[in-house]
Predict the 3D structure of the following.
Amino acid sequence: MLKGRFDTLFDNFLKQQPPELRPGLASRKAALREAGSTRMAMQQLQRRSQYEQDQLAAVQTEELENIAKSDPDDTAAFDAARHAGLDLIAKMNLDPQIRLQTEAAWRASTAKARMEALIAQDPGRAAKMLSAGPVTSDRQAGTPSTESLADLSPDNIRQLLRQARAATATQLIGARANIDLASQNAPNAIASTGSYSRPMPSPADFAAIYGVEEGGKHYQDFSRKIEVGRQAFGMRTMPNQAIHAALRDAEPGPGSSQEDQARYQVTAAAALKTLGLRRTDPAGYVREVFPDVDAAWSNVANSNDNQKGGDPEAYRNAFAISIAAQRQLGIESPQPLPTAVAQGIVNTLRKNEISESDKEAILHGLQAAGLDPDTRETLLRQLDEAGLSQPDQVDPITTAATGGRPSLAVNSGRPKSALEQAGEDFGNYLSEGFEALGRAPRGIGQILQDLRDSPWDFLEQLPVTPLAREQSPKGA
């Protein structure tokens, strides 16, 4: 409180009054001092109290933010933040009882902020601590479960427990969604681009969803599929012969360990995936792998936009570079068109709003590319398989373009899909390899049958234990 404040203000007020009024006012100074001084003292106390409250609020806000951003297990940082508020409270002009209440409220606020930071970091751990309740016998243990919970009221603990359980459920939902998305997309993304753009699930995520033991098994299976994708990406530009050689090199010998057998399974699955993609859509595969091939087909698409039927020279260049790339990879039966391009052409030809002259221009652009007879036959077969010869689109233009050829699927049994054929061919390759080595694992027939029926499940179908332990030599 500022002493003499009333006298100073009164004297200044008196100087501002007319001279004739000053004597009368001065005579009343003593009488006014008692009431005025008390009133001014109360105003000063109110201003000081408000100032202290404002300062305390600012410090508490800052320190609570520091606690929220810091590691909840960092006891030193937590104590520093808490003492900053307590030190300021100690300097305030407070009634002793109010001081105790203010200190208790600050301890509770800091404890709650620390627990909320733990909930944000590890809601499951926070829920376990809150479920156990406060431990008051060891306030200086330095962990949220002992030091912080002792300052929380039962209502605060119940509120934080609900918050922790809700955060745990949200975290588990996110972890499960992340696992599902990664399991579906990560192996193929890595096989195609070498990377996966979304976060990879961790072993802790699998353990949280499936439990420690079962989660470990799921994570191991997931990791093997990721490794298949990585190896498949490494095989993208390898010729088929080199892939077969890599598979032979990876084959475990007699007495091999489970790790060797697991590595072989991964390499075999990567080889099957790569060879299957090449058989399914060889032209589309090289377009995805080689930028020059993709650029050539992009030029074809641009030429189709600029002129009816496209530019024959653009088609000629795309056919040449695509087939050359397929032969470089050792693909025995190159296809001139990527499946997507062939389907796009057929979809255009099957549109009723497309005039016959435009259809003729499209087919003429393909024929003008100067393909050799064998490649032209393959091209027509691709268009036929894409649906060009289906009954609802038989007209003079398409009939003339295909030379009156009937649909390849007519009067024949259901053809094997390219993926099924890849599995069968790969199974034959494995059978021939075992035969050449003069030994075959017991039960290999059923394994190869499963491989042909479901080639993409090949990784799960192979046994985990080394096949060499079950070998029965033929030529010994």
About this structure: The two ends are 109 Å apart (CA to CA).
